[in-house]
Amino acid sequence: DTAVSQTPKYLVTQMGNDKSIKCEQNLGHDTMYWYKQDSKKFLKIMFSYNNKELIINETVPNRFSPKSPDKAHLNLHINSLELGDSAVYFCASSHGTGTNEQFFGPGTRLTVL
Amino acid sequence: GQNIDQPTEMTATEGAIVQINCTYQTSGFNGLFWYQQHAGEAPTFLSYNVLDGLEEKGRFSSFLSRSKGYSYLLLKELQMKDSASYLCAVRDTGGFKTIFGAGTRLFVKA
Prior knowledge:
The structure holds 2 protein chains of 2 kinds.
Chain A: E1 4-7, E2 10-13, E3 19-25, E4 31-37, E5 43-50, E6 53-57, E7 64-70, E8 73-78, E9 87-94, E10 103-104, E11 108-112
Chain B: E1 3-5, E2 9-13, E3 18-25, E4 32-37, E5 44-49, E6 53-57, E7 60-65, E8 70-75, E9 84-91, E10 98-100, E11 104-109
Parallel strand pairs in B: 2-11
Antiparallel strand pairs in B: 1-3, 3-8, 4-5, 4-9, 6-7, 7-8, 9-10, 9-11
């Protein structure tokens, strides 16, 4: 069974479109994250949710809107896509914080044309 | 400010030992993680240090000096499959935010 899953794995779209990426974890974790990894492989935190509550919003444009319907899901909706949004987006989860490692999903490669 | 530095690339020979260094300057500290990321895949957890000293886990060991803002990952008996990026990451005091370094790409040659 996949611990952290994301859909879709690849997403190719035109500038200006709106798209969503879904994330689900079956580990029973209470904290979930979205990261962006750009072409230089820098992994940057975007959002962190704990028990469905937004904890961290790391100066991400308003065009990005996360939504956590329950503790097992954290979806990411992106409006008015721009060329600079092209990257790999990773969802992750952990049991609480502190010493606990994060488990990453397989990533969604977004290409904006 | 928040800053994590690690070498961009390293090359080592199969069977050898390699040490990947990481220095950090962050506003808070609640532990340092090392993750491994193979090309095109997700990062996977390798080690965690919150107290000074060495943590050993099979072929991999990680060291932390909080006073120096310094850590290293030691890989022994290198195998070809160890060719990957190694990400140093610091968790902030609140615990919900982890700051990643840019990663060190390790090439293991025969």
